[in-house]
Design brief:
The protein is α+β, with helices and mostly antiparallel strands. It is 31% helix and 23% strand. It is built from 10 helices and 13 strands. The strands form 3 sheets. It has a 5-stranded antiparallel sheet. A 4-stranded parallel sheet has the order 2-1-3-4, with helices on both faces. The protein has a 4-stranded antiparallel sheet with strand order 5-8-6-7. It comes from Streptomyces milbemycinicus.
Length: 302
């Protein structure tokens, strides 16, 4: 197969997706890597000829790579994760609207183009978690204890663009990250960026049936095939606080090979087969339970 990976400069030296690219190449597939932030790309040739079996995006929010992926999708080419689905989770305002409307457990979300508008949020909603609507990798996430503290952050928040604010979900200070690869779910835990004083060794953990169901449902709601979901275990049960397309897949066993196989399978399905959202919810949960015991395969057919 011939694949095109659109990789933003932020991930030029990152293990994900570079390890996947190396794995696919080792299996005999041709992988063309485009750096959207610094490369000149002939769209008429790359998109017009349809010479790639699939396009894969690893980008920061707001990066130019998504536009190129959308261009490929617009002319009927296969993209790993539907381009519209990626847009739906990269914009956290849009993600909150979609998830809430479809019944996913998510905190109440406020959106504001100017930080001073957040002053209208009732005091009873504090403490708040405030972050950029296009943020990623925990960038600029702030825990704001009171309206007074929020007022003191206005200048700092002014350059962040559209903002979202959510009431803080009381939790143990541990973030639960669940990754979906090829319909299998893998749960890991790590320290929360809001609680750096409580270090937690990053590790794989058992996935409960309730969290597994919610994460698989999130894939179906957003139409994602390869994705990650950040979950907090709050007093009212699991709450989704973020959804990421093509995340780091840290702690997933044999991640490069597993992600590589998933990319090839989605490429084989073609443009009408991707975007199913981890296939179906019930099969995904079955595979999630099996993932704890099934060893990784080491070979790959071409």
């Amino acid at each position: 197969m011939r694949l095109c990976f659109l990789v933003e400069e932020h991930y030029r030296y990152d293990g994900m997706p570079l390890e996947v690219i190396r794995q696919l190449t080792a299996w005999g597939h041709r992988v063309d890597v485009v750096w959207p932030g610094s490369s000149l790309m002939s769209m008429s040739e790359a998109v017009g000829t349809g010479s790639h079996d699939a396009w894969v995006l690893k980008t920061v929010s707001g990066g130019p790579g998504l536009t190129l992926l959308e261009a490929a999708a617009a002319v009927g080419l296969t993209t790993v994760n539907d381009a519209r689905s990626i847009r739906g989770v990269r914009d956290k305002v849009l993600a909150a609207a979609i998830g809430t409307a479809r019944g996913l457990p998510m905190p109440r979300t406020y959106a504001a183009a100017r930080p001073e508008s957040l002053a209208e949020i009732p005091e009873a909603e504090f403490p708040l978690v405030v972050k950029p609507a296009d943020g990623s990798s925990g960038r600029a996430v702030r825990l704001v204890s009171s309206p007074g503290r929020l007022a003191g952050l206005r200048a700092e928040l002014a350059g962040e663009g559209m903002l979202i604010a959510q009431p803080y979900v009381a939790n143990s200070g541990v973030d639960l990250k669940v990754y979906c690869v090829g319909g299998e779910l893998y749960a890991t835990e790590r320290s929360s960026p809001l609680h750096p004083e409580g270090p937690v060794r990053e590790r794989r953990v058992a996935l409960s049936a309730e969290v597994g169901r919610i994460v698989a449902e999130a894939g179906a709601v957003y139409g994602l095939d390869l994705y990650g979901v950040d979950v907090l275990l709050g007093p009212d049960g699991p709450m989704i606080v973020d959804v990421n397309d093509f995340p780091s897949f840290r702690q997933v066993p044999d991640a490069a090979a597993r992600v590589g196989r998933a990319v090839l399978e989605l490429a084989r399905r073609g443009p009408n087969g991707a975007g199913a959202g981890a296939t179906a919810v019930v099969p995904a949960l079955a595979r999630a339970r099996m993932a704890e015991q099934v060893p990784a395969r080491t070979g790959e057919s071409r």
